Amino acid sequence: MQWMLWTLPTAAFFIGIVAILIVMTIWQFIQPTRERRGWIIPMRTTRGDRLFIGLLSSAYLTALWVALVPLTSWILLVLVVLWIVGLILFG
Amino acid sequence: MNNNRFADNRAWFLVLPATLLVAFSSLIPFIAVVNYSLQIVFNMNTHSFVGWSTFHDALTNEEFRGALGRQVLFTAIVLAIEVPLGIGVALTMPRSGRAVGPIMVVLALPLLVPWNVVGLIWQIFARGDIGLFGAFVNNVLHINYNYATGSVSAWFTVVLMSVWHWTSLIALLCYAGLCAIPGAFYQAARIDGASRWAVFRFIELPKLRGVLTIAILLRFVYSFKVYAEPLTVTGGGPGSSTTFMTEMLTNTAIGQFAYGKAAAYGLLYFLIILLISYVFYIVLTRVGTSEGDQ
To answer: So where does this one cross the membrane (chain B) (predicted)?
Structure first.
């Protein structure tokens, strides 16, 4: 594992991703998702589709932020979490 | 609670071997690349965390944006030429008769040549002194053409080479699509007195939609990751005028040993490919459904 050069931030990132997948799995067992059309995405999506779209768009948002905004990325983290949660619930 | 609430997911076990293989060959290296991308890596024992600075550099420096811009331009030009040309070739091919076999063989020939050999063929073919094409352009047409010194010549060569290599793929796929259209459609068009253009616009093109989507997807992927062909002919030059993303990545990672920077470049490249693949996936899976027609 030494060659992978783990650092605390990247480890936290991947643990976060795994945690999201676990939570989504449990949520699916409690309340299975239905394909539906929401407010933001102009097509029918399941909860998993919306998570994927949320993560992908967040990556682009992060790239834009890193390139343009000289502020701490904790603000970005809050924005991204709000965006993904919003997208999964209402997107 | 009834048992029908959940789909039977046991079939997923069948993809377990493939998943393990992908995890070993792609996922674990990918995670390592994410780790590298936030660090300056001298070697496996000497590395330091630098946060977003590699990404900030990548997104603001000319090297990355230049290579990405050239990559996008190359893909756009190549698709804009190859797709109409491929459809055109497919339309002019006979649907039956003795000529079909030889035509198919001739069309399939460029597809069988490996990438680096295609590069080698064109490197010699386009040379001004001993290459047939290069000598013809220089001495008969009297156009100053040298792919090693002129960036316009270099681009022309790289694009022409790609068109030579890959138009056949689109032509063959479209030909298969055209052959699958039932004759009744053409009879109906003839009865209605439809023009050749109307037949193409309202019968052939809609019927080709699925095939064309796949053809464009394949050509997009191949041209967006193009490496060996331009590298063999121009070596990315003159200057960096034909240095595309893959070559720039290789130079950064293996030439300069700047693993952190190369990892950041690679991840940004991956994000673009991921987005476009997802869009194609949506188009492919929803084409023909009521959703796709809205």
So the answer is: 12-34, 72-91, 103-125, 163-189, 210-228, 262-284
CB B273 within 8 A of CB B224: yes
- Which pLDDT band, with edges at 50, 70 and 90, does B5 fall under? low
**What CA–CA distance (Å, rounded) separates A61 from B35?**
20
Coil/strand/helix, residue A51: helix
Q: Domain residues of chain A, as ranges?
A: 1-32, 34-91
Please say if the pLDDT value at position A85 is more than 90.
Answer: yes
Q: For the domain bounded by B72-259, which CATH number is listed?
A: 1.10.3720.10
Given a cut of 70, whether residue B38 has pLDDT beyond it is yes
B95, two tokens: 């649907």
Task: Indicate where chain B has its CATH 1.10.3720.10 domain(s).
Answer: 72-259
Whether the CB of A63 is below 8 Å from some CB of chain B: the reply is yes
Contact in structure between B137 and B157 (CB atoms under 8 Å): no
Q: What is the mean pLDDT of chain A?
A: 90
Give the pairing type, strands B39-41 and B47-49.
antiparallel
Which of B2, B9, B50, B52 should one mutate to test binding to chain A, selecting the residue with the greatest count of A CBs within 10 A? B52
Confidence check on the interface: ipTM exceeds 0.85, yes or no: yes
Q: Measured between beta carbons, which residues in chain A are less than 8 angstroms from residue B271?
A: 56, 59-60, 63
Q: Among partner residues B44, B47, B274, which is closest to A56 by beta-carbon distance? A: B274
